[in-house]
Amino acid sequence: MCTKTFFWNIRGFNDPDKHRHFASWLLLNQPIVGVILESHIKEQNLSPIMQRVCQGWSYFSNHDTDEDGRIILMWKFPASVNILHQSKQSITCSVSVPGTVDFYFTAVYALNLREERITLWEDLKEVQTTLFLETKNWIVGGDLNQIIHFSEHPSPTVDHLTSDMLELKDTLMEIGIMDLRYQGCSHTWTNKSLAAPITKKLYKVLVNEAWSDSFPDITATFLPFEFSDHTPCLINLSTPLPTTGTKPFKFLNFLTTLPQFLDAIGEAWILCGNRALDLHVLAYKLKQIKRAIKTLNRERLSDIQKRMSITNDLLKVLQVQAMEDPTPENFEAEKIMHHKWTFLRGIEEAFFKQKSRINWLHLGDQNTLFFMKVATARFSYNSICSLLLPNGELITDPELMCRIAVEHFTNILAPSILPQLSSPFSWFLQIQPYRCDPS
After folding, report:
1. For the chain, which end, N or C, has fewer CB atoms within 10 Å of the first or last residue's CB respectively?
2. Which parts of the sequence belong to the Endonuclease/exonuclease/phosphatase domain (predicted)?
């Protein structure tokens, strides 16, 4: 089942013309949970509008804490929503959908003034603490009315971090939520001014660590703003990352620590001849070396975590034997096993360190759980879920994406018709004066 949620700032939702467009958008994208922000619908008008525009939907607004009801939470079957907290700038609820892990959703609409937004930041801290959301799947989405970095503003005069940005950044770090990876529009709001156009990234989709563990493949998509001045955000909870038939070869640095490494490389190189006189032969030799490296990794270090666990169990057995029967043979066996366990532990850490790309973390921390989380998050963040063609078509089929990517880079790196050189050959010779000996 396709499980989608959305949030969209539709200022002036009282306008009947926006009702028709919004109903068409819902029909096209088929979300089952969503939020309308900055609607400015009075409480007495809310029920007639929702019954006319969103038939079959249940809804809840924060009119009890804000007379303008700036946040309208809406859901439909089979989703089940339980309201847990509301304030002038947020609504927090739990969401249950059959076939999907339950999660907690906080919809946010921050007010314009800094003093008012500080109240929201404190409110988020309180919600996390009172509802124990640190260990639960928690997603925060909406209009923060504040950028977190000057790169989210196009003006060259905005070139440094302000106190407002730092306050928001500190709040997000304190409650442990971070940006969900996204695609589509990088900026989410426009003033629609022809004379002095401005765009900013005011929308955020933020998730905690527990969410990343439960939904590692999820991506937010910021779509065109259509009839609003804000882009809608659509989050599909049931979209897996594209997979390929084979994984690309990756050289693992810790293989160089194996005693058999140089012998395996040397043997593979010699079997293909001692010399490589052209690129074709060199490519063939490197391919044979790659096979030797894969074989070495598979035979010596495959399932490194399982190997380390087994070695650790054997080490504990030998340590007990050495304590019960303190003979030189038992202590020598314990010493050898301890050395093997230490070696495998270093290999495991080096593996996760390279996989997670944590360049600032020094070897020795042995924090493999942290490495696993970072490696998983990095894989999700770097995965390409879709391609947007120049004609505006969005491609999500993995095989078609593969063909388009190959065609794109083939046209760049190996075009069928080579372009004319704009510089004479003599100019290229002047760049590098080195010449090979003709003999």
Report:
1. C
2. 8-147
Bridge partners of 394, per DSSP, are 388
Its domain, for residue 79, covers 4-236
Query: For 86, which DSSP code?
Result: E
DSSP state of 362: P
Kindly calculate the radius of gyration of the chain based on its CA atoms and give it in whole angstroms.
29
Total Cβ atoms within 10 A of residue 280: 9
Number of domains in the chain: 1
Contact 37, 46 (CB under 8 A): no
177-200 burial, b if ≥16 CB within 10 A, otherwise e? beebbbbbbebbbbeeeeeeeebb
Q: 204 lies in a domain?
A: yes
**Cα–chain center distance at 414:** 32
Categorize the per-residue pLDDT at 25 as very low, low, confident or very high, splitting at 50, 70 and 90: very high
Q: Which helix (H) or strand (E) holds 35?
A: strand 33-37
SS3 110: coil
pTM tops 0.85, yes or no: no
Residue 304 lies in a domain: no
User: Is 39 a domain residue?
Assistant: yes
pLDDT in tens, 104-154: 999 999 998 999 999 999 999 999 999 999 889 999 999 999 999 888 888
Cis peptide before 156 (omega within 30 of 0): no
Are 347 and 363 within 8 A, CB to CB?
Answer: no
